[in-house]
Amino acid sequence: MEKSIYMKLVSSYKADSCRACQYSALEGLEILAHGLEVVDSYKSILRYLSKDGKHLFIGGNKSNRIDLDKGFYLVGFGKASLGMSKALVDYSSQYLEKGLIIVDRKRVSWRIMNYLRNNGIDVLYGGYPLPDKHTISSSQKLVDFISSAPEDKLVVVLISGGGESLFEIPIADIDVDDISFLYKICRENAMRPHEFSTVIKHLSKVKGGRFAQYIYPRHGVSLIISQSLGHDIYDVAGGPTLPDESTYEDAKRILEFYGIWDDLPTSITRAIMEGIEGDLPETLRKGDPVFKYMENVVVASGKIGLKSMKMFSELKGYNSFILSNRLVGEAKEIGQVIASLVEDMYWDNEPVEPPSVLVAGGETSVSVRGSGTGGRNQELLLSIVRRISGLHGVAVIAFNTDGVDGNSPAGGAVIDGCTLRDGLRKGLYPEDYLRENDSYTFFKHLNRALATGATGTDVNDFIIVVINV
Questions:
Q1: pTM for this prediction
Q2: Is the CATH number 3.40.1480.10 carried by domain 5-40+305-467?
Q3: CA gap 337, 383 in Å, rounded
């Protein structure tokens, strides 16, 4: 039997801390596990399905119903596609006629994949985090598949983080190498999610609402697990089934702002200029007929997870608050903000009095200068190890909800008031590991790295502070 996410987290944490710090760390891991359960790809879908004996209802709109004698078609793309699809199959296999999803080969559960294939869902592969030749061929097959579906069928679209690179068909004469280079240089320059989404929408045949053209005139419902900051579903996977108000001019302005316009392949800059001049169509606007029968439903998000963790910690007796679900910036700098709040709560009982819990979410970034192994969550924690040293009963957790933090095998880590002491006893100095961006190695030596494997969902990062004094 597969371990629960809570057991995976707890079994990863074997730190030699004082009793007070261990208690807070274990409490924090329980809160984190609860948040991950709430945004779980499988369970999130089940919450939006219901039956009345004659119909299956999907999402909040009763018009999205599946009659017993009609059935529905299923398509999906993103890191959570497998779990989302399995939920639909388990709940409504008698209604499902055909399906096709695109997943990341590196994150495949062969057991679930074979189960889906045995239930009529074709599972194809795409590239992640950069689109590749498999992305293009699989995406074209998905578009052809849905274009050939009978017009009286409901189309269910499952969208999650990672879908932007798994589902892509470039416009004009842009080839896979050029679009992959664009993705790479945008990510290397730590482009904000909304800006990145604006750029890629204008170079794609399936983003910025354009995929809705292939679904129309069929009725469609997109079930979305949102990793976008602040619950903005328009940016998830480039918003393939949602209207878009940005322009080619916006895309050009963003690329110039980051100083990468002149570094782009000619096919990219030419396509954007043709769009500005009106030779290529804009993304689809609100009010376009293709959205007449299209509903978009957020089934899980970082905001939903944070609210649930806050409520859960309050039930456990903690004074709790949500700092933000939009944390962005250099991980080390955001770490100092978190450390300052820890000190305020610990020493001054502000903004809440211990026992207290702070939860936050977002997506920080790391300016990589070393050659080590780590990720933004572990780097954030490593930057504040000294700040919380000696604060017994304090624990801080940072975790990427997809279970993979940067280039490390861990999803995040746990630190507490004893971490620095334990590191120094083993000759481990945080500054040395920060210099090399080698946070994972530091935490691995101290049994504080949280290695759960891929979780099958993605709503960005969770940060949890627990204080018991």
A1: 0.89
A2: yes
A3: 11
